[in-house]
Write a structure and sequence with these properties.
Order of helices and strands: HHHHHHHHHHHHH
Oligomer: single chain
Distance between the termini: 34 Å
Radius of gyration: 19 Å
Strand content: under 5%
Largest sheet: none
């Protein structure tokens, strides 16, 4: 077999391993998935009337706020779900599983690739579930074309890939699963200080740059524009640039830690 065939075969084996682990131990994924769903329900049904009155120009109609918040919740779902990848990788490191894989005649990169692809697939499944909940409570995207839906899916998948590589690096850098979970907490906190729940221009002046110049805000605004027809402007290029930069950073960080000689 060629080197490429071996790499694909070994990566597929590692992917099956990680998917089996996710199926046998679904509690972590479910716990991480509940966070964005609870945030969605909380903000829509507890704060939705007041928020809609502000966003909708004085009309307390929750549908205005549902349409506004769902793109942000979808991005938050990505940030919360990829924490599972950090915990899974850290667990493999702490239990010596990765050290054992290093001694076996398998493609070295297949171990990380299995974690990354498995995590992205779990993220996409989580996005589908959150999307179903959003539609059930009233979210509609009637103006989006098929091309815009495809672009929205591509953005979500690219963002999921970028954050997964960062999460894998966090897992490899952490001494145990608890430390990995704590290190990955910014992936949940960053959406809270973005334009996910309120427009960035309504925040205090000193705080607006924090909300605007971070990866979640341009991604949320791009997704919002694709699904709802709002202005995207330069956010589309910023979102793609953030995705590519985070993917490259996470990839080189993860491979560097993985290839480092164990102490």
């Amino acid at each position: 077999m060629s080197a490429l065939s071996l790499a694909v075969r070994d990566s597929n084996t590692m992917l099956r391993r990680n998917l089996l682990h996710a199926r046998r131990y679904p509690s972590l994924t479910l716990n991480l998935l509940l966070t964005p769903i609870m945030m969605l329900l909380l903000f829509v049904y507890i704060f939705g009337g007041v928020m809609s009155a502000g966003i909708g120009g004085g009309t307390a109609d929750r549908s205005e706020y549902i349409a506004y918040i769902v793109p942000g919740i979808l991005m938050m779902t990505i940030g919360s779900t990829v924490i599972g990848a950090a915990v899974s990788v850290s667990t493999d490191m702490a239990e010596g599983v990765i050290a054992r894989f290093r001694t076996m005649a398998i493609h070295r990169g297949s171990v990380i690739i299995g974690h990354v692809v498995g995590s992205v697939l779990q993220v996409l499944a989580s996005l589908v579930l959150v999307g179903i909940v959003a539609v059930a409570i009233g979210f509609r995207s009637t103006d989006a074309t098929a091309l815009e839906w495809l672009a929205a899916f591509g953005l979500l998948a690219l963002f999921a890939l970028a954050l997964t590589w960062i999460a894998v690096g966090m897992g490899l850098a952490s001494p145990n699963a608890e430390a990995a979970s704590n290190m990955a907490m910014p992936l949940i906190l960053l959406p809270l200080i973005s334009s996910a729940f309120i427009p960035a221009d309504t925040m205090p002046g000193w705080f607006q740059p924090i909300a605007e110049y971070q990866p979640f805000t341009p991604a949320i605004e791009t997704l919002r524009g694709l699904l709802l027809g709002t202005e995207i402007g330069h956010n589309g290029w910023l979102a793609v640039a953030w995705c590519l930069a985070l993917s490259a950073l996470g990839y080189f960080w993860s491979t560097s830690l993985f290839n480092r000689d164990p102490k």
